[in-house]
Structures are given as structure tokens and as C-alpha cells.
Amino acid sequence: MSSNEQYLQSIGQKGKVMSKEEMTFDSYYDKAMENPQLARNAVQRVYDMIMSYGTYEDEKGKVHYNFFRGRMFGAEKQIAQIMDYFKAASMGLDIKKRILFFLGPPGGGKSMFLSFIKKGLAEYSKNEKGAMYKIQGCPINEDPLHLIEDEDTRKEIWERFGVKIEGKLCPFCKHKLDYDWKNNISHVRVERFFVDEDSRNGIGTFAPAEENDMSELWGAPNLRRVEEIGNEADPRAYDFNGELHKANRGIMEFIEVLKADAAFLHILLTLAEEREFKTPRFPLQFVDECLIAHTNEGEFYRFIAVKENEAIVDRLYIVQMPYNMSYKNEEMIYHSALKTKLVVKGVKVHPGAVRLASIFAISTRYSTDNDKLRDGMQGISPRFILNALAISLVKTSSDTVTPLDMYKTLYDQVERYPVLDVDTRIKYLKILDELKETIEEFNKVSDSDIKLDKVINNRTKLFDRI
């Protein structure tokens, strides 16, 4: 093999798991009793994944999580709320029956936050602390310990080894246990599997659309197999490939979930409360999933205005994810982006230009009715500023985007931004004019004035989704 072939082969294999560990259920059982962490549920794994990066305390004694360090700026309050949820749910408290729900304006970091968690879980599943195993050939990555169906035996295992077995076999594995394995579980094959969003392994995603079909969530009959077997209720004639199946043992993401119709939301209710859902022709199916949903504020308020939706709202653990209200945190977003995805060779952005843009953005985000809870839930988004930075970088005729350049670009963008009503546009342009009056102060800002976080988490790209 030539050196080029070897190089290209290494590129293709980079980051991929090239072999899978296999064993009999006997061997897996011994392994799980020695290491109860193998039997953790999905929420416990997510919590342990984040904690595996460690924590640190600031000068005020407040705990921070290394997993989010250098990834999220100004979101300490939201991170604390999310970690409180994961910790309580992983302990088995009743909050585990709630859906973790991110609520905030577009560009507030909801999707990015979830993206980090999904990628973190995928990486965690590749190391020994995050190792996961399934029944070989199972389409939903079934927990092998579900082969132990007897409740008395499960209770004994809990008392002797501290291993808690919850849930039941999927219809596919139940059929194999009864007919192929003749209820002899000792020689059932078990294999390791790895969370991977691209291959729909341990990560499921659902986004409402005008013509959603229920099969997106719970699969559908395989017509060719139905014809062969002659029975639609036979698990061998069904494709267990819905998003709820593929998310088993990992994370199920619901995008703009409140736009879904009543039938989908009813499934979500049962899923949150019982960790089960109903598929036509089959009994209730158990799935172990960390349920995370997100939507924007407008959709949320339209939803809660309908009294019939109270039961669903009651099952949400809501975390507000507003825009930053500190220009120091806001400018960290843009300085980090200028090192990663906003790079133009030979052109730099003056730190005063970034500060001017950050202060402008913050100034637009205050609540109009003096409600502190509403601060950051409206106004100019980070995406708008990132767009303005990109335009400034390509329009400048010099090697530096100055504060005045930034002012001109922002003024032009606001003037032509069709989303704004007349009064809001006038208000934003007035803010910019006031900032222009102090342009010399922005010119004095130097690199040493920028409080940049030097500790960057190198296990993921910064701001790959915003």
C-alpha cells in the first residue's frame, strides 16, 4: 500500500470505531455485576458524562463545569439549572418524569447547547467509563439486562449488587427470546455500541411539519416481510426504526415541539411519565431516553394560552435561555468566532469594534415593561452581529475593521432589516447614534482590555452551531 493510500485510509478511519466488542450474555452479566455503571439509565449517563470533565470553583465559591468552559459565555445561570435537573433526575427523583425544555429567542443558544451535549455523549460512549452494550441485532439497542424478566430476580440483583433493572424487552427481542432462543438467555450475544447522531444510534430528532406521519416516531410495517410472514402483528414484519426507537439509551430531541399536533404531544406525555409509547398492533414499548425539547418564546405563549395544554406544560422543566445581558460575555462570543469561523486572511477586527457591536446588542435587549425576567428575551441576536462582522470583514478596504466601520455596517443593516417595525428601527438607530458620539472611547480599546477565556475546551469545535 502506498503512503498516499495509507494516509487516505487513516483519514477515513479517523474518529471512527473500527471494531466492536462481543460476548455472551453470561459474560456481560458478570461484567455488569462487577461494574453497575453499565446499567445506568440515559439521564444518569448524560449527567456522568458532563461530570467526567470535572468542576472548578470561582473566587466566590460558585461551582462551574469544565464541560461547558470555553463553549458557552454568560450562561452560568442556565447551566446551573440544567445540572440541577440532571442531578435530581439521575438520582431517580420525580423530576425525571419531566421534559427538559429550553425556552428562548432565536439564536439564544438552545440548539448549540443541545449539540454540545449530544456530541459529548457520543464521545463518552467511546471510552470505558461511558461504555454501552446492547443485545446483538436489536434494532433499538436493547439493554441486555432486560433479558432478566422475573421481578423477584431483579429485586435480588438490586439487593446483592446495587444494579437496578427497569424496563422490558422490545417486541423484536421478546419474539426472539420466545421462539429463537427458547428462553435460554445464557448464550444470547451481546455487543458494544456507540452513540452517533449521523447513524441514528442513541440520538433521535423530531421536528414538526405540516404533514408529519406517526411512522417518523414509531416506525412502520415492512410490507415485503408482511407478505412473506402473513401477519402485520409479527415483530419480524415491522421496521423498528422510528426516532423513538433510535433514541433509545440516549437523547431524544424535539425541535419546536409545541408546533406538533395533539396526537404527537399525547405520545410525549406518556413518554415523559411512563417511559413508554404505543405502537399499533404491539403492546406498550419501553424506551430509556433523555427527553430534551426547545422552542421560541412566541410559540410558547401561544401554546400556554390554550387551557387544554396545561397537562403538557405541567410536565416541562423550563430553562429560560435569553441572550446575554453583559457586554463582556457578549464580546467573548465574537472574539471566539473571529478565531474560528470568521477568519479573513490579512484582515483583523479592532477590539473596540467588537465592543461597540456587543454594547449595541445588549442595549436592544432590555424589557420594554421593566420586567427583569424578560431581559434578554428580545432584541438583536448574536447571529445578527455575526452577520455584521462578516460583512465588515469583506467590505473593508484596509487591514482592520475599525469601530467606525462597525458602526456604519450596523447602521446599514438595521436600516434595511425588514423584521423590525418602524418604532423599533428608530430606537435601534438612536442607540447607534449615541454610540457613535463616543467612538473615540472605542478606538482606545486594546487587546489587553479584552477579558478572553484562555481555557478552551479542545474536545469540540467552538460555536459550530449558532
Automatic annotation (TrEMBL):
Keyword set, alphabetical order: Plasmid
Pfam annotation, one family: PrkA
Keyword Nucleotidyltransferase: no
Top-level taxon: Bacteria
The PrkA AAA domain, residue ranges: 23-373
GO MF annotations, alphabetized: protein kinase activity
InterPro entries (UniProt xref): P-loop_NTPase, Prk_AAA, PrkA_C
PANTHER family, alphabetized: PROTEIN KINASE PRKA, PROTEIN PRKA
Protein name per Swiss-Prot or TrEMBL: PrkA AAA domain-containing protein
